[in-house]
Each structure stands twice: as C-alpha cells, then as structure tokens.
Amino acid sequence: MFLKKRTQAELSMLLVAIVWGSTFVIVKNSLLEIGPFLFLGIRFLLAFVLLGLVSWRQLKSAPKCTYYSGCLLGIFLTIGYVFQTVGLKYTTSSNAGFITGLSVVLVPIIYMLINRLTPNFSTIITVFLAFGGLFLMSFQDWHTSLSYGDMLVLVCAFGFAFHVVFVDRLSHRHSALAITSVQILFVGVFCLVVGLIFETWPQGFSPSLIAALLITSIFATSLAFLLQNSMQKYSTPTRFAVILTTEPVFAALAGHLWANETFTQRAFTGAVMILVAMLIAILSRKDKPGVNGRRTSDVRCRI
Prior knowledge:
Blueprint: H1 2-30, H2 36-61, H3 64-87, H4 93-100, H5 102-115, H6 121-138, H7 148-170, H8 176-198, H9 207-231, H10 237-244, H11 247-259, H12 265-283, E1 288-289, E2 295-296
Antiparallel strand pairs: 1-2
Helix pairs in contact: 1-4, 1-9, 1-10, 1-11, 2-8, 2-9, 3-7, 3-8, 4-7, 4-11, 5-6, 5-7, 5-12, 6-12
C-alpha cells in the first residue's frame, strides 16, 4: 500500500514538473497580449482566491508573525517571478527553464556564505558545471556578453534561491497553507499595483490569455502547492527534488513543440551541464529531520 502511495505521490510531482515546464512557453506567448506585471498580478491574486478557500481558517487564526514572515518570503518570490517573467520577453523559454534551474545550485552556496562555511567538493563541482553550462547556453563565443533576457532570468534564479533559504528557516514555525497564501497575496498585490501604474490594461482577454492565466494560477500555483503539501509524506524530499529537476527538460520540450525553439549543440551541452549540476546539488545533500519528525529539504521549493 505504501509503495502504491509513493508511486502516486511521485507521479503527481512529475505532473507538477510537466506543468511548471510548460508554463515558460505559455507565459512567453501571453506577454504578447499583456504586460508582465499585470499578468503576474492577475495570476497570483486568482491563485490566492483559490488557496484562500482552503486556508481561510488558518489565515483567520494565524498570528501576526505569519503575515510578517509571509511578506518577507513574498519579496523573494516576487523577485523570482518578476525577473523570470520579464526575462521571458527577451530570451527563449528553453533558456529560461534551465537558467531558473540554477536556483537549485545557488541554494547551498548561499547557505555556506551565510554560515561562513568552506565549500565542499560537490559544491565546487556544481558551481563549475552550472556556470560553465550557463556560459555555453548564453554566450555565443568568448567575445559576447550575457544576453539581457538571460541576465534577468539569472537574477530570478537568485530570487528563488533566497526564497528557498528563508522558507527553510521560517516556514516550520507557521501553518504551511497560511504562510503560502500570504506570499501569493503579496506577489499578486505588488505586481497588480505596479502593472496598473506602468502598464496598459489589455482591451480584451483572448481565449489563449484566459487559458494561460487559469493554467498558471490553478495548476502551476495552487494545485501544485496542494499536491506537494499533501503528497510529501509518502516520499522523501530528495526523491521529489530529483523528479522536479525535469522541469527545465519539459520547458525545452514545450518550447520546441509550441514555439519551434531549437538548441544548438553548444547550448545543448550547456543545458546538460546545468541539469547534472542540479542533480549533484540535490543528491549531495541529505534530507534532515523537520518539525514533528517530518523530513524536510532545503534544495527545492516553489509555488
């Protein structure tokens, strides 16, 4: 029975990885009709409404510190999604998927810098592989510079990495549903306000734009979080994290199928190097005991 549950849980995470990977090209196409801040504002406010229906009691009873911590985490989440979404206007969804994946490699580096630790051998290897892969994907030769879109998505990877670090430090003190809902609300309100000030509201919402908003808010945010939260007890964080490293692969597949994106041999080599670096970063870290005996991982966390 447990093996059946674990299989179901891991297949659920594979579905999440497929959805997350597909959203890169979906969001990129949507930006032809709507500004990135307005898109994110609507997406996350809709996701908050959906999660709020489930977490209303937890939100009502949550102490003020949950809202403070949620807003802090919301800042890093906002950095991640804003730079990723704006970056998608200037780079391919395939590049964005793999460069976003660098957040997995950045997490242990940030931990070591914060705690003033000496990097171990596996961390050094992941750094060389990851940034070597980034160079091959984003630089045409030794004389070019990092493209504007890839640079924005690289900032996004740092935002997501800091989000993982602070989630690991803060989330165990609060209701998972409550603190996640606060983060989503923060991103939604911030982006909508900025979008209303600096962007033009679309004259109409096409069926494809409506579908993109529903897919990203319901499946890529609300449902993905609920699946992670409900299924994690049937597997280990490391197994989940390994499955979720397939996200950039699905991003590349979606980009190829729906946007005719292709990899050069050089870019393909870089993508493989980044993927290997992600796997090493995950497998070299151990699951650690969490609150009430639950195993936690500081490698991967996204909503």
